Structure formats: structure tokens, C-alpha cells
Amino acid sequence: xxxxxxRGSRGLTCAPAKPVTDTARLLxxxxxxxxxxxxxxxxxxxxxxxxxxxxxxxxxxxxGDAPAISAGLSLDGxxxxxxxxxxxxxxxxxxxxxxxxxxxxxxxxxxxxVSVEAGVIxxxxxxxxxxxxRRGFFEGYLGASRKGVKLRVYVSPDYLRDGQATYYAExxxxxxxLSKWSLDGHAGLSLIPYDKSxxxxxxxxxxxxxxxxxxxxxxYLSAGxxxxxxxxxxxxxxxxxxxxxxxxx
Length: 249
What we know:
Elements: H1 23-39, E1 44-52, E2 56-57, E3 60-61, E4 68-76, E5 81-90, E6 97-111, E7 114-125, E8 136-146, E9 149-156, E10 166-178, E11 181-193, E12 202-216, E13 219-228, E14 240-248
Antiparallel strand pairs: 1-4, 1-14, 2-3, 4-5, 5-6, 6-7, 7-8, 8-9, 9-10, 10-11, 11-12, 12-13, 13-14
């Protein structure tokens, strides 16, 4: 049995759904993007709005299996600089609330057909089912991509309340392309330290996703299935079918 997520009275306690307190950070990030755009003529700003049957993060639901709407803003600056922010709203449990907020900043370089990137992400979630984990945390990452395959490695210094670093690695790949249809796969591995008073070492959790997508006019439609054995955002561990429609502008 995992030592950290299931420890009697400290685990299996789902915090009540409350608005994410970091919404102000999203607004500040959006304002910063606007200022950067105004000051850099070659910068490109893009936005997106998505409607999903379920909002998932690394195989688990962050909206309590309820539908969600997400909005995002991104900036690609000259020289490889990029930044962005997004927010997800759900009406799960009959209460309209912000379920997730994300801000990121990074830098990417290309050498031939290989792209390398590094960045920092701040994530906030309204619900986590284990008190040892923070709802808001930072992750630094390094990534590389080539011909439809993307690898990323993340390190978080403050995901755990006891201050131990956690790790996550993922690979995303285009498995099949047929006309406008595409099949993409994802595999992820979380490495979470045991309690400081425990045996030491890292506990391993896995997640996966298969997703079919295609453009339809100005919409991008997706459907798939995802699962994980990491019981921190949701305790069920079941596989989830999802579908989404996104509009970019």
C-alpha cells in the first residue's frame, strides 16, 4: 500500500469545493502578457476556449467528473520566449466554481528538427483528496520534441507539504495520422517520496491516455480515455472517457 496518500485520518479526506484563491495570479499573468505584447512588435498572442465533459490532469479528474469550460491565453515572443495562463470553471456539485488555474513561462530553442525547452509552471487546484499535498505548487521542467514525439521531465519543490521534491516524467506521441484524424498517446510516471519518517525511496505512480482528434472548421474535436493509479486528485482510480471541443483565436 502507498505510504503517503492512504494513512488513516490524514488521507481519504476530500476538501470542500472552494474557488481557487490564485485567480488573481491568472489576472496578473494576463495583464503581463498584454504589456509584453504591447512592447514587442513581433510577439504573437493566441487564445483558446474549450468545453470538455471532464477536466483531467495526469489521468485524474480535477472537476469531480463534471463538465468544464476552460479559457487560455498564450504569448510566443521573439527569440524563443513564451508564456501563458489558463483557468477552468466547472459547475460540479451544483456550485459554479474555478477548478484549476495555471500560469507558465519558458524558453525554447530549435536545432534542425529537434526542439528543446525549459520553463516554470504554477498550478492551483480547488480539490486534492490528501492533506499532505498542496493545492497550489510550482514545477520546473525540461523537454525535447522531434517529429511528433515530446518528452518532458518535471521537478516540484513544494508539491508536498513536508518540503520534499517530487518528480514527474511523460512522453506524448502521435501514433497515427489518417487524413484529418490523428491518434495520440501519453504515458506518465510520478515519483513521490515516502514520509520523512518512512522507509525512504520513491513511490511510483503511472498514468496513460489515448486520444482521437480532428479539426472541424475552426473547432478542434477530441475524445479518448485516460487512467492512473495515483489517488491524490480523486480516490477512484477508474478509467475515464472524455470528449472536448476547442476554439482557438
